[in-house]
Each structure stands twice: as C-alpha cells, then as structure tokens.
Amino acid sequence: MIPLLHVTPGDPTTVEFLKLLTQVLRGSVATRKRTTQPNSKDCAEGEDVKLPCNHSTISGADYIHWYRQNPNQSPQHIIHGLQSNVTNSMASLTIASDRKSSTLILPRVTLRDTAVYYCILRDPQWDRWGCTCTVSLW
C-alpha cells in the first residue's frame, strides 16, 4: 500500500527517482537502507502537519530526502538534510541527533498539499531506498 498525504503543489532527479521506484517495486534494491512511515495522515486545512520517517539503517553519509507526488505528475523534491534541521519555503525537516528518525513539517497545509510523500535515504553515490506516506485533509 502506498501511503498518501491528503492536502497538494521538476526536479532534475525525477528520471533517477523513477528508476529507483521501479527497482523498489520490482524488489531489486537491497534493503539495507530502509525507511518506514505511517501509511496515511489526515489533517484539517490550515494545520501544520508532521510526517515522521524512521531510518534506523542510515549511514553517516546518507542524506534524508523528501519528495511529493501529485496524481499524474512527476515526483517533486521538497527538502533534504544530512545532520541539522533544515527549513525552506515549502517545509521544515527536523533530524534526530542519532539520525535514526526525522520529521517533515508542512506549515499551514491547504488542499493543494494533498499528495503522496516519499522519505528517501541517499548517499553521495545516489544509492537510495525509501517509502511513502499519504496525507488527507478532512
């Protein structure tokens, strides 16, 4: 089951991301770098939404990336970080001091934020493994 954030908005790595997603779905990617997320998250418009991601197998060089995908569109990069907390115009990423978990924070969500959200680990050589979370507004 693919998780979804119900609330919705190119990334140059879209082709690579889709290749990875195909490998994941085929089971051909090593499972040494797993992430786990809740399957879905319901929220009300105007709320700040927190999407947790656990990644206990993270290595020292792995970056934590978040993407979102709207129906019939390519995945869109939201934010990434290595060790410290990061904020941009779309979201904030908080990373635990041991790096085994992180949280994507979407401020004041609207219906346009409804999408599938992917938490992915990526090392400098682009080796990645990820999973998804769906958020729904009610």
Overview of the molecule:
The protein has one domain: Sandwich (Immunoglobulin-like), CATH 2.60.40.10. 9% of the residues lie in helices and 40% in strands. It has 1 helix and 10 strands, in the order E-H-E-E-E-E-E-E-E-E-E. The strands form 2 sheets. A 6-stranded mixed beta sheet has the order 1-2-10-9-4-5, covered by helices on one side. It has a 4-stranded antiparallel beta sheet with strand order 3-8-7-6, with no helix packed on it. This is Ig-like domain-containing protein. Its main location: membrane. It is found in: Cell membrane. InterPro entries: Ig-like_dom, Ig-like_dom_sf, Ig-like_fold, Ig_sub, Ig_sub2, Ig_V-set, TCR_complex_component.
Derived structural class = mainly beta
How much helicity do the residues have? Answer: under 10%
Instruction: Show unreliable segments.
Output: 1-20, 22-31
- The CATH H-level superfamily is Immunoglobulins
| Arithmetic mean of pLDDT | 76
Strand content: 35-45%
Pfam family, one: V-set
Protein name: Ig-like domain-containing protein
Organism: Sus scrofa (Pig)
Subcellular location: Cell membrane
Could you give a quick summary of the protein structure above?
By secondary structure, the protein is mostly beta strands. The chain has one helix spanning 14-26; strands at 4-5, 40-43, 49-54, 63-69, 76-81, 86-87, 92-95, 101-106, 115-122, 128-137.
